[in-house]
Amino acid sequence: MRKIGLLVGREQSFPAAFLEEVNRRDAGVTAEYVKLGGTRMGEPCPYAVLIDRISHEVPYYRSYLKYAVLQGVTVVNNPFMWTADDKFFEATLATKLGIASPKTLVLPNKDYVPGIVPTESLRNLVYPLDWDALVGYVGLPCILKDAHGGGWKEVYVCHSIDELIHHYDSSGLLTMIAERVECPFDAKVIGEEVRVTEFAWPKSGYGLLAVCERNGKQYKVDVNSLEWVEPYPKGFEWIEAHRLWREESL
Fold it and tell me: How far is it between the farthest Cα atoms of the chain?
């Protein structure tokens, strides 16, 4: 009997449903959670297929998955593509393919590992950064976020150069990108037309609010309440991605 192995993180809905459905079918295939505790060279992998949902955050899992590929295992997603999985590359690729994508720029790292000596190791970098030119390209407000992150971590709405620099200065070893979401734009909330003028964080720090205007009044709604109206604003893709992530996490 062939086996499917599942590598997961904190998510609950998909893993349990997937395992239940595969095993319920009784079609000569079983599925189970993978258990790893150190991998030896030449150690056989007991799975025909491995489904990976977490190796982007656990480097050991990536090493194991690449090893499994060498053993003839089919791995979803391809662990060798992880090096290409950054948001700047993805935004550029989307644009090349004619898919709408927000203006995006990638920034040099703020900090480096101890072995890096800035005056010797970073001679190819321009310093200090020309923040006026960078903001002139991407525009404000903009979204600053980890190019390799997920789960809505290390994401900031920046309304000014000072806010952008403040959050950049706290980014440490992360590689940050800035993306533009053009405001204002038209949308609907419960079927009523509104004008979205900007975005804001709720006091809880979780989620994202759209600042809307209607009939001379201003109010804030969760972005999940927005209904898109064509033409879609540039940068709406990351809002839609956030909405989908929120739905999955609830």
Answer: 70
